[in-house]
Design a protein that fits this description.
disordered N terminus; about 300 residues; 7-stranded antiparallel beta sheet; about 15% strand; alpha+beta
Length: about 300
């Protein structure tokens, strides 16, 4: 889902004139009351199936990016984050939930602000749906409940507003930002604003004080930003975990073996989102956790 506006903590939310979000924003199952039983059972039994078990991918992305002779600087978030992809046959209806799972998993692994509020168990899609509904009932971004008609046990897409509602309802500090094409003068594209914001964010990270990943929403899809590359020619790539896919077997089996530039780019391609890809979209939203884990000793 790509909500029309995001209201950071402390701002009043507004119900927009169109309360019935279009199908393209809530997904192909925008009007269903319950997901099919087979899918419910699949999620219930295999929801954790495609969670990265070991801290391999972030390490390998770091190694490969630094080996790329065209990359000047590589920024990466806290290495506690793990890739969580979709499970077989779930389609692409739960990307928002997978990104939320990655943020929560980071909080718990890094023992960052509010991690204890999520308990010890893996947060399933169904648990996250319950938490969204509870947040709405408490008045956090409650317009989402009116717009969607509720998300419990459905395949309706969620977005930044729902992630923000959960964190705010639990007292976890977060910041939401929206970026739109500006006609000017001066004119600025949404993707340029996004890249500037992400670069500024990660440039404040240090080895002893790494920052959390970022929830990224673009129209009809969301991802988790785990870092950024700045290339020698001045262009920039976001580094992402995209839950529409699973972790690439190639990079998992790569280890630290040497790779030529063609092979290196092939291994990093699933995790890079360059300017040529981002410029297709006229709007983005991000959600950041604004209190990171305690500095490493």
């Amino acid at each position: 889902m790509f909500p029309p506006l995001i209201f950071p903590a402390g701002c009043a939310s507004v119900v927009h004139s169109s309360l019935d979000l279009q199908k393209r924003e809530l997904g192909p199952h925008a009007y269903e009351e319950r997901m099919p039983v087979w899918l419910h059972d699949l999620l219930e039994s295999q929801d954790q199936e495609n969670t990265e078990r070991a801290p391999a991918i972030m390490t390998l992305i770091s190694i490969l990016s630094q080996k790329d002779p065209e990359v000047k600087t590589t920024y990466l978030c806290h290495d506690a984050v793990r890739y969580i992809g979709k499970i077989k046959n779930e389609d692409n209806n739960f990307c928002g939930y997978r990104n939320l799972q990655m943020l929560v998993q980071y909080l718990k692994a890094a023992k960052a602000q509010g991690y204890e509020k999520f308990g010890d168990e893996f947060l399933s899609v169904f648990k996250l749906q319950d938490m969204i509904e509870e947040a709405w009932n408490k008045g956090f971004n409650e317009y989402g409940q009116i717009q969607t008609g509720g998300v419990k046990d459905t395949r309706k897409h969620i977005g930044t507003a729902e992630a923000q509602a959960i964190f705010r309802s639990l007292g976890i500090a977060c910041r939401a930002d929206a970026f739109h094409d500006e006609k000017g003068p001066p004119s600025r594209n949404a993707y340029e604003q996004l890249l500037d914001s992400v670069e500024q964010y990660f440039s404040s990270s240090t080895k002893h004080h790494p920052l959390p990943p970022i929830y990224l929403q673009r129209p009809r899809h969301s991802m988790t930003i785990i870092g950024m590359e700045i290339r020698k020619n001045g262009s920039r790539n976001l580094l992402v975990f995209d839950p529409a896919y699973n972790a690439s077997d190639d990079i998992v089996h790569y280890g630290a073996a040497p790779a030529d530039i063609k092979r290196l780019n092939s291994l990093l391609k699933p995790y890079r989102r360059g300017e040529h890809q981002l410029k297709r979209y006229s709007a983005f939203e991000t959600l950041r956790l604004t209190e990171a884990a305690a500095p490493a000793e």
